[in-house]
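Running co-folding for flavin-adenine dinucleotide.
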Amino acid sequence: MLKFVDVPRGMPEKRAADARRDDFGEIYREFAAAKAEEQASRCSQCGVPYCQQHCPLHNNIPDWLKLVAEDRLEEAYQVSQATNTFPEICGRICPQDRLCEGNCVIEQSGHGTVTIGAVEKYITDTAWEKGWVKPGKPIKERPESVGVIGAGPGGLAAADALRRRGFQVTVYDRYDRSGGLMIYGIPGFKLEKHVVTRRNGQLEAAGVKFVLNCTVGKDRTFEEIRSAHDAVLIATGVYKSRDLGGPGAGLPGIKKALDYLTASNRHGFGDNVPEYTSGELNAQGKNVVVIGGGDTAMDCVRTAIRQGAKSVKCLYRRDRANMPGSQREVANAEEEGVEFVWLAAPKGFVANETDDHVAGVRVAKMRLGAPDVTGRQTPEEIEGADYTEPADLVIKALGFDPEELPTLWGCEDLPVTRWGTVRTDHRTHMTALEGVYAVGDIVRGASLVVWAIRDGREAADAIAAKFDDAARVMAAE
Ligand SMILES: Cc1cc2nc3c(=O)[nH]c(=O)nc-3n(C[C@H](O)[C@H](O)[C@H](O)COP(=O)(O)OP(=O)(O)OC[C@H]3O[C@@H](n4cnc5c(N)ncnc54)[C@H](O)[C@@H]3O)c2cc1C
Ligand code: SF4
């Protein structure tokens, strides 16, 4: 049965129609097929596949576009899944404007990119519908076991690739659900949660074991995990939120982006989330100010709009051209009614006189000065131009740093960089600790799902190669 979803006040009708679209699956499936074929046939098969070169997984995009254009979808799926563990997830959330689509030759010649991500999503969604996506059960079991710490895209991509080769794989995660930021960070309107959970189901069906609600460093020591497995892969992501100081920084009503997004995602799962129900982590009816200019900030502003906020503003200390987030996401947010306040930096927070709750952000107006060593113009404060931006809910989205794993895990010999990320050999992903590998954000710093997938697949190759080499040496002796 068709049903409408609630569309928040203030959302323009075009966007409202888009938001409703998912509930019209029956109608749009036909539309999507026509659209995918039409888009795929726009590919000129240029012979210099910049799209493929700029995809971190080097997906064979021209080949699967050609197969879609010829209505050979099952073959397109086989080509697409050969290089990507989660094509339907990347198709939904890769910043394609900075990767494959931004480098499409047709885009470069001013005729609008082939919508590669949408076609990739369509191919694999169809494969799921038709039952072509099968659990990666191995042909032959191997005795070696691998412990993966962290069930985000990096850990899961490695788990999948190792299990297909017959390794005994156990994934440990501190959350109650597997998926990492794909489950509790990225909002459901960008990445529907069933798309992630059905992948978890496939991994379980293939024989991957999950130990959830298990924080390594607390519930189990790192040494326990190491001694239980022949190899260990660290894929714990980056979770230490960058913070803000200034007067009033500790006022109630000032929240971290990930706490806000996690509450919203948990509510979407039907969990009991007291902070959401009480309004503490819910934007409904509020004047919301989000501080930051990256993709996390964009997710917060767009979530606040969907929760029915009275107003949503995004403060960023540089201008639009210098924003780190995807321009496509900024345009989406603007269309949905978010107001961007450029060249604006928080200086402090003001409280309600009655209850001491946050009532506004003291904002310093900025201008862009001389470029710094990285070539980026440094924001400078304009003296005497401060003002107060009213806010009942302030969300800090200033980025993430790695947690101090060597200290938290009592493993001082785990090598880290000066930024706290785990140091690895960039080809094998192995650390200086024998049999310990690391991938994804904990190595790169806050990055992208597609890079975590690539790392996970490469680490699985390296782990398998190492055991194969060892087996060959033993056989020769
Ligand atoms: C709000 C938000 C939106 C984003 N949107 C996008 C997007 O649209 N597109 C995109 O490509 N990327 C996006 N990203 C980035 C992307 O989510 C990450 O780059 C990616 O998830 C990193 O994968 P990972 O496997 O390294 O780590 P994560 O996904 O962070 O997974 C790490 C896992 O390790 C677990 N863990 C951590 N410490 C321990 C421990 N001690 N013991 C046990 N388990 C532990 C965590 O619970 C978590 O499940 C977004 C990030 C955020 C925060
Ligand atoms: S994985 Fe990402 S970058 Fe690669 S083709 Fe798909 S959408 Fe583009």
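Result summary
Residues 449-476 form the longest helix (28 residues).
Residues 1-14, 19-28 have pLDDT under 50 and may be disordered.
Job closed.
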